[in-house]
Amino acid sequence: MPGVAGPDREIRGYGPNPPKIRWENDAKVAINIVINYEEGSEMTFAMGDGVNDGMYELPFNVDEQRDLAKESMYEYGSRAGIWRLFRTFDRYDIPITVFGAAVALERNPEVAKKIIERGDELVGHGYRWIDHYHYTREEERDLIEMAMDSFDKLGLKPEGWYCREMSTNTRELLVADGRFLYDSDYYGEDLPYWTFIDGKSHLVVPYSLVVNDCRYIMGTGFAAPSDFVEIAKRTVQQLLDDGDDCGRMMSIGLHPRITGNPARTHGLAEFIAWAKEQEGVVFMRRNDIAKKFIEQVPRPETPEDRPNR
């Protein structure tokens, strides 16, 4: 619509003929586990924000002052939960992607060291865990630059980006910046796809909030770890036999302050052990999914060169 900021909507997608992608080891389903590492960068009175952030175990709020209970629940993720998750990934020898907020990693650099040691992928998750749509284009550009400078000092080189909530300027800023292979600020696909921004091709590697542990605490899904395991298994089973011969990707979104709690980690481990036994399934980092896709669906020169669009 003329005069409306932001990218065009892309409703049609691949339609009935998506590309027949295969992943590492000729797998049909690529599972990407994402750790959203935000603890210590969230909005708090302690950091001068005048508000206490959400995504909290109980729907209680302390207004107009610090909420020490809520702060401590976030700190569970950085003190205990993240390390329980890393031990689980080490035990099952699987790669992951970390959506990391720069300030969270600055305040707990041992986590950054562990990401590097394991060979995991960092995706830029903002300078802080904040909604980018609150900021002007110039402010958002500065926030992206501050985040990338911070990651560089920690020895991390993100190839991807995922905001808490993107703005209508985010994707244009990422393309203009030139350092990003892809972004994941999109929920509308089970496969990466090419889009065009200011005449330049740009890769989108979609994310999902369906197999996501926010459903433990937001009243829309998981009452017990068995609920998480059930929906995760059924997602894999459907993608393995989705009515065609096309491969697809699956995103699992986790937070150390949520799934880092023991019972939920136990459910995650149950699913990982099961998935590793399934033929045609592989765990991959998000940047590796992007590169494997590009091998099979090369960067298009024009919008008309895109497959089945």
UniProtKB/TrEMBL annotation:
InterPro entries: Glyco_hydro/deAcase_b/a-brl (IPR011330), NODB_dom (IPR002509). Residues 68-284 form the NodB homology domain. It comes from Tessaracoccus flavescens. GO terms for molecular function: hydrolase activity, acting on carbon-nitrogen (but not peptide) bonds. GO terms for biological process: carbohydrate metabolic process. This is NodB homology domain-containing protein. The lineage of its organism: Bacteria, Bacillati, Actinomycetota, Actinomycetes, Propionibacteriales.
